[in-house]
Amino acid sequence: MSEPQMTNAVSTHIPARDAARVDLVLVADMVERGARVLDVGCGDGALLRLLQEERGVDARGIELSQRGVNDCVAKGLSVIQGDADADLDSYPARSFDYVILSQTLQATRAPRRVLDNMLRIGRKAVVSFPNFGFWKVRSQLFFKGRMPVTKNLSYAWHDTPNIHFCTIRDFVALAHELDAKIERAVALDAHGKPIGFNAPWAFWNMFGEQGVFLLSRER
Hints:
- The chain is of the alpha/beta class.
- The chain has a single domain, classed as Rossmann fold (3-Layer(aba) Sandwich), CATH 3.40.50.
- It has eight helices and seven strands.
- A seven-stranded mixed β-sheet has the order 3-2-1-4-5-7-6, sandwiched between helices.
- The radius of gyration is 17 Å and the shape is globular.
- The protein starts with 21 loop residues before the first helix and ends with a strand.
C-alpha cells in the first residue's frame, strides 16, 4: 500500500471563505473551475453554493432528505431528491467531471458500490469522511468500552445514520481494490489543520480526524 506523496498534495494554505467548513474548502479546491459537478448527499447545499461562487461550476446535487432538498432549492440550487445507494446506477458514464461525496460515505448501505458508481459517472471523484481510526475514537473504545462520540461522529450508537465506519487505511485499501488512482489526499487533525503530507498512512490513520481524497480511474 503506497504512502501519500508530497507531489500529490493540496497546499496547506486554507483560505478564509466566509464560515465554510475547512473540509468543504479543501473539496472545492480540488475541483477545476467551470467543471460539471454532481454533489451526492449534498445536505443543505453549503458545498454546492461554495463551488458555484468560488469555482464557477455547473453544479447539480442529489439529497435524500426532503428538508435538505428544500434548503437547497431555497438557495437557488439545482437539487433533486435521491438515494446514493439506489439512484447512481441510472446515471450515464462520464456524465460529470466531478462526483463528490462529502461526509456521507459512512451513511451509505453499500459504500463500495457507491464509490464504484462515482468513478464511473465522473472523470474524478472527491470523497471526505470521518476517520474511525482517529486516536480519540480509539481511546474512547479502549478506556470507556463504549462506542465513541466525537465532533465528526456526533450520534449515539442507537440513533446514528452512520452504518459503515472506516479508517483512512480502509479507504485507501478500497480505492486500490477499485483500481482508483489517489491523485490528492489530505488528512485533517482535530483542529481542522492538514497533517504533514509526507507522513505515512499509519500516521494519518492515527492523528487524522477526517480524510479528503481526490480519485480517478482510467477507462
